[in-house]
Input
Amino acid sequence: MKKFSLIGTALASILFASSSIAQSEFKIGSGSNNNTYSNMVNDVITYCDESIADKQLNNVNSKGSVENLVGMGNKTFNAGLVQEDVLQYYHKRNPNKVNNNRLKIIAGFHVETGHLLIPRNFKPASSEKVRFWDKWVKKDNKKPVKIDIDMLKNQTILAWGGSVVSAEALSSFLELKATVKSSSLSEAKKGNSPVLIVGGQPSADVQTLLATNKFVLVSVDYNQLKSRAPFYVNQEANYEVNGKVVSIPTFGVRALFVGKAFRKESRNQPMSILAGCIDENLPDLADDPDTNPNWESVYELNEQGLMTNWSYFKI
Output
């Protein structure tokens, strides 16, 4: 009886070990608990968890794009969601570690909106721009105020969270030489500096700043950005201004589902399978009433053929 027990224990150990090997974790860096990134990763897991037989998809909450990007570099994550401006900015800063050979796109996701807010009483650092700003602040704001993005040259821009890196990227690619200050909503409400908020709309922070009546959500000329950084996309921000809903032309950046790429093609198979699964199920992800509503915009973007020039995993 004792001999049978030992054999049974040994067999159970072997089966457990085989199970562990068969279901190794595939860690996906998302975002904070229950935010858009995290919810969309959960949707992917719901639809695609069984498509990769030897991998168990695992949603790992994180601080967002930067942590996910760094996590793929140090093998903390197999994949993660990263805004394209963050990806391109880190590629520009460190092309040896962030490039098409090390990281590839599993799927393109939704577009995050760029919100540029300028204080009504803003006084720029350079006196030569005062004439422009004086003319600008006298606007009645019944129509969107279009700004020359170069007017932000050498200015201080406030941002917080993931928008800090987005502001740094904007300054770098557009050669604004702006000082990006990591700030907070409470400090921004003082109305002393321009603010950049990149994220989903409507943004509660944007609405809070507009409600102070100290800021104007300005219109950004997308063509100025496109010529210098083609990964930015044309976008509109819709907010209530002076009691009316106003559509304000601006820019956006696409969220990308990025995976760690390997030199040996066979190691890339899980990412390719995942890419194929998302592509195949995208209509259902868009129509499913239980999935994140951003899937509908992802489907529309794919129908338009909006693709980044970054490399994709083969489907």
Observations:
- Residues 1-22 have pLDDT under 50 and may be disordered.
- The first strand starts at residue 24 and ends at 29.
- The CA atoms of residues 25 and 238 lie 40 Å apart.
